[in-house]
From TrEMBL:
PANTHER family: CELL DIVISION PROTEIN FTSL (PTHR37479:SF1). The lineage of its organism: Bacteria, Pseudomonadati, Pseudomonadota, Betaproteobacteria, Burkholderiales. Residues 77-106 are annotated as: Disordered. GO terms for biological process: FtsZ-dependent cytokinesis. Its main location: membrane. Essential cell division protein. May link together the upstream cell division proteins, which are predominantly cytoplasmic, with the downstream cell division proteins, which are predominantly periplasmic. The keyword Secreted does not apply. The gene is ftsL. This is Cell division protein FtsL. It holds the Pfam family FtsL. Part of a complex composed of FtsB, FtsL and FtsQ. The keyword Cell inner membrane applies. Keywords: Cell cycle, Cell division, Cell inner membrane, Cell membrane, Membrane, Transmembrane, Transmembrane helix. Belongs to the FtsL family.
C-alpha cells in the first residue's frame, strides 16, 4: 500500500508541475500575442500616415513648387521659346531675342 501511495504522490506532483508549466506558457504566449497585435496596429497607423504624406507630396501644387524652388524651372513663354526647325520665324524675330551661335560674327 505504501508503494502505491508513493507512485500516486509522484504522479500528482508531476501532473501539477506540468499544469503550472502549461499555464505559464499560455500566459507568456498571450502576452507575446498582445504585443504583436499592438505592434501591428502601430505599423498600420504609420503606414496610413506615410500614404497620406505621399499623397500630399504628389499634388500638382507641390510638384510645381518643387520645380520652381529646387530645380529653378519657370513657365514657358513664347519670348523664351526657341524652335531650331523654324528658321523663317527666326528671321522675323528682333535681333536681340535671337540666340547667338558660338563664334558667329555679327
Amino acid at each position: 500500500m505504501g508503494r502505491l501511495n508513493l507512485i500516486l504522490m509522484i504522479a500528482v506532483l508531476a501532473s501539477g508541475i506540468y499544469m503550472v508549466r502549461s499555464a505559464y506558457d499560455a500566459r507568456r504566449l498571450f502576452t507575446e500575442l498582445d504585443r504583436s497585435q499592438t505592434e501591428g496596429r502601430r505599423l498600420d497607423a504609420d503606414f496610413q500616415k506615410l500614404m497620406a504624406d505621399r499623397q500630399a507630396q504628389a499634388t500638382n501644387l507641390r510638384v510645381e513648387q518643387v520645380a520652381r524652388e529646387r530645380l529653378k524651372m519657370r513657365p514657358i513663354t513664347p519670348s523664351i521659346t526657341y524652335n531650331p526647325d523654324a528658321p523663317a520665324l527666326m528671321a522675323s524675330a528682333p535681333r536681340s531675342s535671337r540666340p547667338q551661335a558660338q563664334g558667329a560674327a555679327r
